[in-house]
Backbone:
């Protein structure tokens, strides 16, 4: 009797954990340390150069998230992005993604300074899309948890530019 109850409990726990997060079309993936908590089920590029290569070869825009582990603003943005199934699905299907906890040597990735969190888009022609930015004048590429709608709009713009310009 106890074994049957434990088995039923285990099945319930397994089933309930499957309902909360976005699961890619290819099925559940092994968590990557490269996600750094931004979406363990997603495939993340290891380096900027690898992200550029994948972007070009797969004809998808690259989305780069600059953040720090101990930054409360980065943690708040990470929380809302990982909990939004629509964004997780878009990242999985439509983008090459990279998150960086350090600055790169490419000056194009810090057009208005080095701050976190910031999100930049790069098209497959390796052009940093400085025209896709957030709502702040002093930090053009910064997003806060309340800016998810704007982030989704900017993700759509990055995809639309991909189709219209390339």
Residues:
């Amino acid at each position: 009797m106890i074994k049957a109850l434990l088995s039923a409990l285990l099945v319930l726990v397994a089933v309930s954990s499957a309902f909360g997060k976005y699961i890619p079309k290819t099925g559940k993936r092994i968590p990557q340390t490269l996600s750094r908590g931004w979406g363990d089920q997603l495939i993340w590029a290891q380096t900027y150069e690898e992200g550029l290569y994948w972007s070009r070869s797969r004809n998808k825009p690259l989305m780069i998230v600059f953040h720090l582990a101990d930054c409360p603003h980065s943690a708040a943005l990470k929380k809302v992005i990982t909990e939004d199934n629509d964004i997780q699905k878009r990242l999985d299907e439509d983008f090459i993604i990279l998150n960086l906890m350090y600055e790169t040597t490419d000056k194009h990735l810090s057009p208005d300074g080095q701050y976190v969190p910031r999100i930049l888009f790069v098209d497959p022609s390796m052009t940093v899309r400085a025209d896709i930015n957030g709502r702040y004048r002093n930090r053009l590429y910064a997003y806060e948890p309340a800016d998810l709608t704007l982030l989704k709009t900017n993700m759509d713009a990055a995809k639309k530019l991909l189709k219209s310009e390339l």
In short: The CA atoms of residues 28 and 49 lie 27 Å apart. The longest helix spans residues 148-165.
